[in-house]
Amino acid sequence: MLTNVYCLPGTMCDERLWGYTQQALGESIILKHVSIPMEETIETIVDALAMVLPEHPINLLGFSMGGYLACAFAMKYPERVNGLIVVSNTATSLLDSERQQREIALNWVAKQGYGGIPKKKAIMMLGQVNKAREELVECIQLMDKRLGGAVFIQQLKSSLVRPNLLPRLEKTTFPLCFAIGRDDGLLSTAVLNKMKDSECFNTHVVDECGHMLPMEQPTWLAELIERFFKEN
């Protein structure tokens, strides 16, 4: 039987984000890309998602910013979630360093215009063993270029303020798991250690992987997706 998984992407990512993992999955599970709505706050994005996602319980997966949005959606509409995988996100507030970088980027774009993600920044998002993989770097840059400056500004502004959802997620009744790259420099090590020690969270960490887990470790993620949604 065909299984659909509705997938929310990260900042400046389009459907190409899922291509490597979809190839590893084959045809029994379909990753259905859901674009992030062009809204001004997390709350209004969630309301917009409620209009486009099916009303019946769905298999949900979110990557990075999409992981946070998927958690926010699941908190507001738990009856519409069959199970949730959160990839490269811990459903917490932004690190102070990351928020400062985003504010600097927004100020720069306001003055200079948007020139796309620099190659150096794209490389930084990958784990050490994947930094030399030109096809991954190019894909990150191409996704960014396609979405452009207006989407960049909207996605950064709308996600600057994001409450810590972990305390509420501890009380969820739907199946939930987290998938994290060991070399992901965008996530708090302290938060990850707390999550791994907690009985409330099913947290999986994969080696040789930075932030772009669906592209860096697609076979590992495909196996997790198959296992998780088969069991739930």
Descriptive tags:
232 residues; 10 helices; Rossmann fold; six-stranded parallel β-sheet
Molecular structure report:
- The protein has helices at 19-25, 42-52, 65-76, 96-112, 119-124, 134-158, 166-169, 189-197, 213-216, 218-231; strands at residues 3-8, 29-33, 58-63, 81-87, 176-181, 202-206.
- It is of the alpha/beta class.
- Helix content is 47%, strand content 15%.
- The two termini are 15 Å apart.
- The chain has one domain (3-231): Rossmann fold.
- The model has no long low-confidence stretch (mean pLDDT 94).
- A 6-stranded parallel sheet has the order 2-1-3-4-5-6, with helices on both faces.
Q: DSSP helix count? A: 10
How many whole angstroms does the radius of gyration measure?
17 Å
What is the percent of helical residues? Answer: 40-55%
Q: How many extended strands? A: 6
What is the topological layout?
Elements: E1 3-8, H1 19-25, E2 29-33, H2 42-52, E3 58-63, H3 65-76, E4 81-87, H4 96-112, H5 119-124, H6 134-158, H7 166-169, E5 176-181, H8 189-197, E6 202-206, H9 213-216, H10 218-231
Parallel strand pairs: 1-2, 1-3, 3-4, 4-5, 5-6
Helix pairs in contact: 1-10, 2-3, 4-6
